[in-house]
Design a protein that fits this description.
Blueprint (H helix, E strand, L loop, with lengths): L1 E6 L2 E6 L4 H9 L3 H8 L5 H17 L2 H5 L3 H8 L4 H5 L2 H9 L15
Antiparallel strand pairs: 1-2
Helix pairs in contact: 1-3, 3-7
Length: 114
């Protein structure tokens, strides 16, 4: 899924692909699916903070070798390019890109008589 996320005054293209989890695990040392499962849909702020970087770099680089060469310094430099409050305020948009159409905003409807 591709989407441009506005973080502060910056427009940040983000791209989620099936390979996003592999790049995340390589850089951050954790399997994001296990993190999400372990948290049982609890607070996943750190996951989304880090995944936003992966998604932004996938949209920017579109090159496996360059993605595999990313370092923690690259991540910190990327974070240094924005305000904390601006970024954390858009984590729901990062989640929307990462989870794609698996996120639903509708609530379960109650059926009368049940």
């Amino acid at each position: 899924m591709y989407k441009v996320v506005k973080i502060g005054d910056k427009e940040v293209p983000m791209l989620a692909m099936a390979s996003s989890d592999i790049y995340y695990k390589r850089l951050f040392g954790e399997d994001p699916l296990k993190v999400v499962t372990a948290q049982n849909e609890g607070d996943n702020t750190t996951l989304l903070f880090q995944m936003g970087f992966i998604l932004a770099k996938q949209a920017e680089l579109r090159d496996r070798k360059k993605m595999m060469a990313l370092t923690m310094d690259n991540y910190i430099d990327w974070l240094d390019s924005m305000e904390y409050g601006d970024y954390i305020g858009e984590l729901d948009q990062v989640a929307a890109v990462y989870y794609g159409n698996r996120i639903t905003s509708s609530q379960e409807k109650k059926v009368s008589g049940q």
